[in-house]
Amino acid sequence: MKEPLVDYPWKDTLDKILKSEVLQDKDLLPFLFDVVMSLAYIDSTNNLGNSLEVCTSGDSHYNAHLGFINLCAKCYAHKIWRYQKAAKPSSGALGKLSSELILKFISSKFTDFNQVQVVGGTNYADAIIHCKSGELIYAEVKSAPLITFPLLVQTPFFDIEEHEKLEITHSQLQECDSALYINQHISIPLGKVHSHLWPFHGLLDFIENIDNKKLIYAGFDHWNKARELYKSKDKSDPIYYLVNACGAPPQIAKTEFGWPKKEVISDSKTSAGLDRTDDIKKGIYQTLKIGSNHRHQQHVKTAIISNLPAYRHEKEYIEDIIPILWGDQTNLMNDPQIGEYISKENLRYVFDYIITLDYSTLRDLEI
């Protein structure tokens, strides 16, 4: 067992980000998680140059775009439905990273956790949390960003057609400035591609500059609006089509902009937080299994941890499970007046807690 992110060279950079003055406002954490996760997507994408396409939409001096949904965000800001195939990070690398990243954020938000440990290998728990109260929380971890923000690059090429693939060498790319695109008004400068601790150090520089505080909150407002649209599946606002699991574009994208048939912007496999139904089912089973293995240890609790709750599937898959208690038949007792029963101290919840960067199910956990 180990603490989260010890294997990553940018761990200390993230520690400084999470301790920055502006991040004392914990409401910003789910937005920042998406920002950092987007940087991790960029960092985990092999041969970045192969996925970059020329895009000169807007006034920005960045003239190349790489995204993680099938839509060019820069073009979309100017009402152009431009299909650009999503870049594919290494999925094996991201699974481990996303779990450890959310654990790092959770330990930042909940300061009453003494220690958060990552459980390696094929153990049935992803993490163990040591609480100041003496409780041990065995956790199943599932996380996914609401928005994966795209990468912008300033390249020396100016005579290439819009959204043509760039033919750029690794050494040429290293000389290019880059930024993370939040929206048409906000980009976070990341510095030269593949420079030291790129792209994470650029975020630290941005957050530590007090002059950027208003921009950080403006970015959060944009993200927060996207969250509300994601919850309600409200397609009337253009921001909706920038979130993960937004589905297919409207018909106008196909009739007026040549959007490829049968192609979506982002499918349900990329649902945010705990919203993938397969993740919910597995999480419930795993916490039930862990609880069964530790049913005689009252100080051991179970939790599902994610960056965001299951906004779209909570009512259907989770709400009815929250109050359910279960027991072991060996603990059955018999009373002549009331019949068989199991005493409260021998009953366990299916899962004790759901812990997220938004609202959580904490029952009597004092944190």
Description of the molecule:
The protein has a 5-stranded antiparallel β-sheet. Strands 3-4-5-9-14 form a 5-stranded mixed β-sheet, with helices on both faces. The protein has 10 helices and 14 strands. By secondary structure, the protein is of the alpha+beta class. Helix content is 30%, strand content 17%. The model has no long low-confidence stretch (mean pLDDT 94). It has a domain at 11-94 and 145-270. Helix 1 (11-18) runs parallel beside helix 6 (200-208) and helix 2 packs antiparallel against helix 4 (91-109).
Brief characterization of the structure:
The protein has 367 residues and is α+β, with helices and mostly antiparallel strands. The protein has helices at residues 11-18, 29-43, 73-76, 91-109, 170-174, 200-208, 213-232, 251-257, 277-293, 314-318, and strands spanning 53-54, 64-66, 113-118, 127-131, 136-141, 151-154, 177-183, 186-192, 300-305, 325-327, 333-335, 339-341, 347-349, 353-355.
